[in-house]
Amino acid sequence: MECSLAQKGVQIIAVEPGSLAEEAGLRPGDTLLEIHGEAVLDQLNYQFLITREDEAELLVQRPDGSTFMASVENGGEGIGVDLAQDEVKVCKQNCVFCFVHQMPKGFRKSLYLKDEDVRLSFLYGHFTTLSSSDDAELDRIIRERLSPIHVSVHATDPEARVKVVGNPREGHILRKIDRLLAGGIDVHTQAVVAPGLNDGAIWQQTVDDLWARYQEGRGSVLSLSCVPVGLTAHRENLPSVQDVDAVFAREWVARWAPEVRKYAKANDGEPWLLLADEWFTRAGIEVPGRVFYSRSWAQLENGVGLVRRFLEHSRRFIKSPRAKGFAGRRVLLLTGSSFAPTLSRVAAELNRAVGSQLRVVPARNFSFGDSVTVAGLLCGEDLKYAAHADRDAHARQQERGGRKDWVDAVVVPSSSLRTHTGPTDQYTLRGVVVREEGTFLDDLTLPQMAAELGVPTVPSGANLSHLLDHLEAADRGAFRGGALTSAFHTAGLNLPQGAYNP
Ligand code: SF4
């Protein structure tokens, strides 16, 4: 079957000693062409094919081009091979608010990667517009049960959708969604909302159309989130798009927060319509309580509920004996200006409870512009600048008789150490691995920053408990170089997903 993700087999890079694959004569460097007579497209497809039956018929190609068949009784399990990384599927759309188009020049190549890959949508919750998915690919999703999938709808009105995705052939997203639902695939959906583009009646229609598809077919539209558009200061030669300012955000919250409750009521109390945290932070309004978010925190990675979850965890943590680990610590917490008020409140509560001295400083985003306020898009130089400014202010106080030393540690947002590609590190772009661990967007590394600041510098982690782990690790001198890389994988305090997502 032809498929837009099709490749000519997948290369084997390692064979486990004593495995079924070794017994069958498979070797590193061979290419797995077919299983049960079906072409092996990629790693995900291999998993589907190899686990489908108790016995697998393999067609394998040697590096010299010769082929042979092997039969393996695997009982529906893997056969002990590691396969080469897949190439990520690159987007060819032209969305008016595509974040990649608004990137300043000069960053590393991997940050300009526009992925539009249904495999990443299934595996990691990346949103896809489905614009690059043809019928064969939709059939593959159904056949391999890649459910749920995350779809950027933006607008169900064909004319509005064409404008948003910049592709005249991609107005009819509902046709694709309906095909998936009929095939038993569940779908999480989102719309990035820009004033005058897909708000008002167009948004209302989007909500109505998608709600009508909740438990409509064999599959269901499980949720719909709305995220305010993210614009940078680098929109040269791009269509004009109006930003979401505080007034618009306040009106949006006033109009749609009650609707969240209405849909939740019609859905056994489980929220279906979701508002991203950024609506509240841009409006300067406290995020709502736990009942506003789905029980499973659906779309957390899309910036829905991160602040509430952080607050909930923090309040429990501050009451726990473990919180005393912060006692006496003098720490500078750097974050984006949208999250700074929340973090400052939590830091003040912790300080009062255990006698710590945590201070929060919002870092200005010089790299992308002041309109970008999320922590995850701060570059190393932005964070370093904020830390230096704070240290200079401290030095001036010191001259006037203030405390001698500055802080014991500086904390940077974990999300700023994650790249756009995030989990795409398993994938490659024409053979180039795109993951760069412990590196800010502008290639400054955490150890470099620590060396320049002259104090331990650690990632925040997703909550206060992670943060304390990192500070204690720094006490032990464990936070050097590539050590504790797991810290970089913990979710950030404020992910930039809204800005990145298609
Ligand atoms: S927003 Fe996403 S789908 Fe749209 S052009 Fe950018 S990468 Fe492609």
Structural features, described:
- With 502 residues, the protein is an alpha/beta fold.
- The protein has three domains: 10-84, PDZ domain (Pdz3 Domain, Roll), CATH 2.30.42.10; 100-304, TIM Barrel (Alpha-Beta Barrel); 310-486, no CATH class.
- It is built from 15 helices and 17 strands.
- The protein has helices at 20-23, 43-50, 118-124, 135-143, 158-165, 173-182, 200-211, 246-265, 277-283, 306-319, 340-354, 380-399, 446-453, 464-475, 497-500; strands at 10-15, 31-35, 38-39, 55-61, 67-73, 81-83, 86-87, 149-152, 187-193, 221-228, 273-275, 330-335, 357-362, 409-412, 427-429, 432-433, 457-459.
- Strands 1, 2, 3, 4, 5 and 6 form a six-stranded antiparallel sheet that branches.
- A hairpin with a 2-residue loop joins strand 15 and strand 16 (432-433).
- Iron/sulfur cluster binds at residues 91, 93-95, 98, 100, 114, 116, 129, 502.
Summary?
The protein is of the alpha/beta class and 502 residues long. The protein has helices at 20-23, 43-50, 118-124, 135-143, 158-165, 173-182, 200-211, 246-265, 277-283, 306-319, 340-354, 380-399, 446-453, 464-475, 497-500; strands spanning 10-15, 31-35, 38-39, 55-61, 67-73, 81-83, 86-87, 149-152, 187-193, 221-228, 273-275, 330-335, 357-362, 409-412, 427-429, 432-433, 457-459.
